[in-house]
Amino acid sequence: MDPAVLSGIMRVSSGGNWVLDKYNPWPGVAADVPAAKDYAGGFGVDLMLKDLGLAANAAIESKSTIALGETARNLFALHSQNGNGHLDFSSVLNLMRYDNK
Questions:
Q1: Which fold would CATH assign to domain 38-101?
Q2: 10 Å Cβ neighbour count for 25?
Q3: Dihedral angle at the C-alpha atoms of 74, 77, 81, 87, nearest 10 degrees?
Q4: First CA to last CA distance, the chain
Q5: What are the residue ranges spanned by the domains of the chain?
Q6: Mapping DSSP to helix (H, G, I), strand (E, B) and coil, where does residue 24 land?
Q7: Which of 18, 47, 69, 90 is most deeply buried (CB count within 10 A of its CB)?
Q8: What is the rounded distance in angstroms from the CA atom of residue 7 to the CA atom of residue 27?
Q9: CB–CB of 7/20 below 8 Å?
Q10: 91-87-23 Cα angle (round to 5)
Q11: How many CA atoms lie within 13 Å of 83's alpha carbon, on the beta-carbon side?
Q12: With 70 as the cut, is the pLDDT of residue 89 above it?
């Protein structure tokens, strides 16, 4: 399915959210977002990784578990290690793309 069509369907259904409305991470769906500019600009992967690290430290201090947070941190760490730390955080979806972009 065309990514723009799928995004449009999700936006008007129970899947509607801020990302689809304002910051769609899939290239070619929305203008004026980092995905439309090869993920240039925006909030960087390395900054997101830093913030996820701060959240992990806070979780440790409060004796909380953050299984999904740790998974996210691991994905962002891998993405950064692959040389993508300067890209917008939404570029992390490229780890999951079927076409290996």
A1: N-(1-d-carboxylethyl)-l-norvaline Dehydrogenase; domain 2 (1.10.1040)
A2: 21
A3: 130
A4: 18
A5: 1-36, 38-101
A6: coil
A7: 90
A8: 12
A9: yes
A10: 50
A11: 0
A12: yes
Residue 45 structure tokens: 């992967």
pTM of the model: 0.87
DSSP 8-state symbol, 11 = H
What is the secondary structure of 27-80 as a DSSP string? TTTSSSSGGGGTT-SSSBHHHHHHHHHHHHHHHHHTT---HHHHHHHHHHHHHI
What pLDDT sits at residue 29?
Answer: 95
The two tokens of residue 51 are 């913030």
pLDDT at 99 over 80: no
Q: How far is it, in rounded angstroms, from Cα 33 to Cα 74?
A: 25
Q: Which two tokens stand for residue 7?
A: 């995004």
